[in-house]
Design a protein that fits this description.
This protein has twelve helices and twelve strands. By secondary structure, the protein is α/β, with parallel strands linked by helices. Strands 4-3-6-1-2-5 form a six-stranded antiparallel β-sheet. It binds flavin-adenine dinucleotide and protoporphyrin IX containing FE.
């Protein structure tokens, strides 16, 4: 139980976290990933190398310490972490490992003069409170996923039943359960967790669902990343009949019911969750402005499908912007997406819902352009294809 004295100590450590939180979480990951091999497969090593994951955790811990008196102020952060954890199957038995390593890291980074017994005891109690909150919320999602029609808990074996090249660097994989049963109706924008064994080691990754739900199969579309472990493996090895473990759909970057016009603004492989979103919005008769950026037509996935949707539904307008167009390419704009492009391509009203996803610098630009054009911040939603981070233009 977290006492008043514990809260006071935790709040007093906020300034230390503001300056040294990242060093602390980096040290924490070093301790955990070297000492506890059982949790290593859950983490994407590239996110450790880039520092994005330690940074995301440091920001989460800082937000928690700042709001220790009013946890409701953490708002969407908790939901986002819960969904990410569930998608990768973080389980209650993992929490004591993280707790032990976090306290060890606090001791070693802050040193005995600052990390006194009182500080360690307060943080142990605070960690337990947060862990209990996350474990409880995660169990609710696991249970809901298991009880949904076609749903399940934990890993389920799926088979690649079809592959399709979507561009020079993106391949779609159609996945069906090996048990022949149905799959749940996910919400457009959600993603799967995959578990694979590569060179004898287990790895997990998230991939957005890139086709509308149909109750029988899932589709994911994977861009081959230079030097990428899982994407390279999927492109090369995951031919028809290849089997892999899948965790149920998760994620809260989901299309919300609304009467407002919708802008879907994506770049590169960030287009994947926008495909089921576009289909759902079109069926509801919503006005949709679909804006997609790619280097050129050769790497532009789903162009024909989007063109076809725009031809079939009068409410859909689509705009394509190429930063490195080839001589034969046609696009509505060239170069990187600018405020002027958006001014031209967004609906007349700024009272719209905008969803955007792409490389982080693209997202930072889009966020800033939308704000400058008067789109209300609370009507802008976005997701990261990696650990969450601050978006600064
Ligand atoms: C919610 C969500 C949805 C996603 N949806 C999609 C999707 O629909 N389609 C899609 O293609 N991707 C999607 N992703 C991204 C996907 O999960 C993977 O991150 C992506 O496929 C890269 O994984 P990888 O194993 O191929 O590359 P990794 O092996 O993780 O490597 C990524 C990059 O980091 C470099 N790297 C790796 N290790 C190190 C190291 N130790 N030091 C320095 N550099 C290193 C690699 O060379 C490479 O350039 C999504 C991610 C999330 C979180
Ligand atoms: C109180 C404890 C914890 C907190 C505050 C916390 C916080 C976070 C945060 C903020 C993120 C980033 C979310 C995002 O970017 O969307 C994250 C991701 C993640 N967490 Fe936790 N977490 C906790 C416990 C755990 C535990 C016990 C495990 C399992 C060992 C775990 C495994 C993961 C993994 C695998 C990711 C994704 C990493 C990646 O993308 O590489 N977390 N967590």
């Amino acid at each position: 139980m977290l006492s008043e004295a514990h809260r006071a100590v935790v709040k007093a450590t906020v300034p230390l976290l503001e300056t040294g939180g990242e060093a602390l979480t980096q040290h924490f990951y070093r301790i955990m990933l070297s000492g506890y091999p059982e949790v290593r497969p859950l983490f994407n090593q590239a996110h450790q190398a880039s520092g994005d994951q330690p940074r995301a955790l440091a920001n989460g811990v800082l937000a928690y310490a700042r709001n220790i008196d009013r946890l409701e102020a953490l708002g969407p952060l908790v939901g986002q972490v819960v969904q990410k954890h569930v998608s990768l199957q973080v389980l209650p038995e993992h929490y004591p490992i993280v707790g032990t390593c976090l306290l060890q890291a606090i001791r070693e980074v802050l040193g005995p003069d600052i990390a006194t017994d009182e500080v360690i005891e307060a943080w142990a109690a605070a960690y337990q409170q947060l862990a209990d909150l996350l474990i409880g919320a995660e169990e609710q999602v696991y249970q809901a996923n298991a009880e949904a029609p076609g749903g399940w808990r934990g890993a389920r074996r799926f088979r690649v039943v079809r592959r399709e090249d979507e561009s020079e660097e993106i391949v779609s994989f159609y996945l069906r359960p090996v048990d022949g049963g149905p799959v749940p109706a996910f919400v457009p924008g959600q993603y799967l967790g995959l578990r694979l064994e590569i060179d004898g080691a287990e790895v997990r990754r998230n991939y957005s669902l890139s086709a509308p739900p149909d109750g029988t199969q899932f589709r994911i579309s994977v861009k081959r990343e230079p030097g990428g472990q899982v994407s390279g493996f999927m492109h090369q090895m995951a031919q028809e009949d290849f089997e892999l473990d899948v965790f149920p759909p998760a994620g809260d970057f989901t299309l919300q019911a609304s009467e407002r016009p919708l802008a879907l603004i994506t770049a590169g492989v960030g287009i994947t969750p926008a495909i089921p979103m576009l289909e759902a919005a079109a069926r509801e008769g919503r006005t949709v402005h679909f804006i997609h950026c790619a280097r050129h037509a050769g790497v532009h996935a789903f162009r024909e499908w989007v063109d076809d949707m725009a031809a079939r539904y009068p409410g859909i307008r689509r705009f394509f912007c190429y930063s490195e167009p080839r001589a034969e390419d046609t696009a509505d704009g060239t170069g990187f997406l600018t405020r002027e492009h958006l001014e031209k391509w967004l609906p007349q009203t700024r009272d719209l819902d905008a969803y955007f996803l792409g490389p982080v610098p693209f997202m930072a630009q889009v966020k800033s352009h939308l704000a400058a054009l008067g789109v209300p911040g609370e009507q802008c939603r976005y997701e990261f294809f990696g650990p969450a981070q601050a978006l600064e233009a």
